[in-house]
Amino acid sequence: xxxxxxxxxxxxxxxxxxxxxxxxxxxxxxxxxxxxxxxxxxxxxxxxxxxxxxxxxxxxxxxxxxxxxxxxxxxxxxxxxxxxxxxxxxxxxxxxxxxxxxxxxxxxxxxxxxxxxxxxxxxxxxxxxxxxxxxxxxxxxxxxxxxxxxxxxxxxxxxxxxxxxxxxxxxxxxxxxxxxxxxxxxxxxxxxxxxxxxxxxxxxxxxxxxxxxxxxxxxxxxx
Length: 223
Hints:
Layout: H1 5-13, E1 22-27, H2 34-46, E2 53-57, H3 65-71, H4 85-97, E3 104-110, E4 115-123, E5 129-134, E6 153-157, H5 161-174, H6 179-187, H7 189-198, E7 206-208, H8 213-216
Parallel strand pairs: 1-5, 1-6, 2-5, 6-7
Antiparallel strand pairs: 3-4
Helix pairs in contact: 5-6, 6-7
């Protein structure tokens, strides 16, 4: 039978065991729907009660534009070496170790400004599941190699390539790029990153097909 969104909810809900906090990673190429899936999972799992799940995006670990300018990397913003990968891995370890302690604050990312924002994402002690999403969760090079060991499972968002590029281009336009610049970025730096991410797909515990798209965009879910 095809995988449903309710199947994903049940699998995510079962990850925390023995009273400890679990961390679920959602990987995929730019524009594949990682953030949408993570946000919907957390919203459905939390319902209206005390937060049981928290959403911590990897994008909060983008290096600031000023640092990218200093390093000469701004023209390929979004590549693996334009993130603080070691800082991200350290946060995941802290989230696992402090599951019963104080609130842990993670950085967020403001898409209008295209800049990371410190202390923007609170993870309360009540959160038994942290859902983190980003491109490079399955990468095996540099500090990124530390990330996988801190994740209980990693799901990979699969999406038709033409549709992924269409969505990504539309997103760039929505946040201020001209149609020409949006297409150039999606087919240039973004595509190079997408090819790198696609090569890590085999390391995922689950490949999430796009068949649950209607439920994800607001359709019916029984949970």
